[in-house]
Design a protein that fits this description.
Structural class: alpha+beta
Largest sheet: 4 strands, mixed
Strand order of the largest sheet: 1-6-4-5
Order of helices and strands: HHHEEEHEHEE
Distance between the termini: 34 Å
Number of strands: 6
Radius of gyration: 16 Å
Length: 141
């Protein structure tokens, strides 16, 4: 067995991810176009104030108007699948996922990101059309 096999938790994949793959395939996918900022881009500090950066506010606003789930206020546990198509490979998936969850919450698609019982994120590079494609699947916990 290789080092990669040791790092990959096959039991977790087989138990949690593989069973939900058919639901992911059938689920309606939503697309939000635009360059998603990284969590590193969130705030500027001015003396004693912390201010959200303009590009993050602009992305959240664009997300709000593009999101078909706007004002749905999902308030039951859910699983989320998302594919991040980024303009460069420099951004970490965990940093863009924070902005993604905040944007879902800000547009009232979800009532709180702590209702997320699981997620499966993938990262791709698409310089011509940066976007996020996602689906939300209700789950019983």
């Amino acid at each position: 067995m290789s080092e990669i096999d040791d790092l990959f938790d096959k039991q977790y994949y087989d138990e949690y991810i593989r069973p939900i793959l058919p639901q992911i395939e059938r689920a309606k996918r939503f697309v939000i176009h635009g360059k998603i900022p990284s969590v590193n881009d969130l705030y500027d500090r001015y003396e004693h104030h912390v201010v959200k950066k303009e590009k993050v506010r602009q992305y959240e606003n664009d997300f709000y108007w593009q999101c078909p789930l706007r004002d749905r206020m999902i308030s039951t546990p859910f699983f989320i699948y998302a594919e991040f198509y980024l303009a460069t490979k420099m951004k970490d998936i965990d940093n863009v996922s924070k902005v993604f969850f905040d944007s879902l919450q800000r547009c009232h698609a979800i009532s709180d990101d702590n209702l997320c019982s699981g997620f499966y994120f993938r990262k791709f590079i698409d310089k011509a059309d940066p976007r996020v494609e996602f689906c939300i699947i209700p789950v019983d916990i």
